[in-house]
Design brief:
single chain; 326 residues; mainly alpha; 2 domains; two-stranded antiparallel sheet; 13 helices; 42% helix; 10% strand; disordered N terminus
Length: 326
């Protein structure tokens, strides 16, 4: 089964006759899952290790397929759905509330979506940023079930039940009532920590599903890597290690599809390094690339992004000369 547009309508119970402790996937059209046909001797724990890198996600596979928490009822030949995150490339004027409404069903989930992408909801994502969108399970509570039980099952930590309460707009005062679930209550479980292994990505592509939508997650990985590599690049420039800066900056440019704001930072650093090394042709190219990336990212650029400007009070004469030809 593939994910349905949020919110779900006409929920089906998978593999159970009674509405108790079952789950299924819900999400936008490109989220959801890819199929796996269970082979003799395979277990959900083995699949969790192969697809997610950890056996603790066995419960996710069970929940997504309407099985008990340990998947005791699986048999060879059974078709399983394997949940996976999706990705979206940000365009101009998109905000976290807009994206949360589109992919998670409610603007109030902007905080959760931004946090998953190491951001804050009041600062718009950068243009061309590839954000990760979680797969979401629907869990229907059974008798005497608690939110902390679900947190332990799906997050590995019962004390994180407050995150489920927040996502489901429930009372979150730490009381016993806030932890208790009524029979038949529907709980949405966002799988924020679910990441496919390389083997999982191959199976997703082989399954013909658009699970790894748009950039397939490669840009997301490259952009996260750039976040850790840009500070050392800037430190190289500040420390006068210009050859190292050029090498690091060009490695970053070749690492994948980066955001416009990241490109602006890298090209501005390379511009300064090239000027210091008297590599004027490369400096002119870096300046042009800096201007292009800076102007493209301007509507949603972070405050600390190097905007295109040649103020003589802050920009050296050599850098201005490389940018203006004067």
């Amino acid at each position: 089964m593939t994910g349905r547009p949020f919110p779900a309508r006409g929920l089906r119970l998978l593999g159970c006759a009674a509405a108790a402790s079952v789950g299924l996937l819900v999400g936008h059209a490109d989220v959801a899952a890819f199929p796996h046909t269970l082979q003799p001797g395979e277990t959900l724990a083995q699949l969790a290790v192969g697809y997610y890198g950890s056996a603790r996600f066995e419960a996710v596979l069970a929940g997504a397929n309407g099985l008990d928490s340990r998947g005791a009822s699986v048999v060879p030949g059974m078709r399983l759905e394997v949940p996976a995150p999706s990705h979206h490339r940000v365009v101009e004027r998109e905000t976290w509330p807009d994206l949360a409404e589109r992919f998670l069903g409610d603007r109030r989930r902007a905080d959760a979506l931004a946090k998953m992408n190491h951001a804050v909801p009041w600062v718009p994502p950068s243009i061309a940023q590839e954000i990760e969108v979680p797969a979401v399970l629907v869990h229907i509570a059974g008798d005497d079930e608690k939110m902390s039980t679900l947190a332990a099952r799906y997050f590995g930590e019962p004390n994180r039940y407050w995150e489920l309460n927040a996502y489901n707009f429930r009372k979150n005062d730490g009381s016993a009532k806030a932890d208790q679930l009524a029979r038949g209550e529907v709980v949405l479980v966002p799988l924020f920590e679910l990441v496919l292994t390389e083997g999982g990505k191959r199976e997703a592509r082989r399954g013909g599903q658009r699970v790894l939508s748009e950039g397939g997650g490669e840009a997301h990985v490259a952009q996260r890597r750039a976040e850790t590599e840009i500070p050392p690049l800037l430190a190289d420039v500040r420390g006068g290690r210009y050859v190292d800066a050029v090498a690091r900056g060009n490695r970053l440019l070749g690492s994948g599809d980066l955001t416009r704001a990241q490109l602006a930072v890298i090209h501005r650093a390379l511009l300064e390094a090239y000027v210091a090394l008297d590599a004027w042709g490369a400096a002119v190219g870096a300046c042009t690339a800096w201007r292009t990336a800076s102007e493209a990212s301007a509507p949603q650029a972070p405050r600390d992004a190097p905007r295109w400007e040649l103020d003589p009070r802050t920009v050296s004469p050599k850098i201005r000369a490389a940018c203006t030809g004067k």
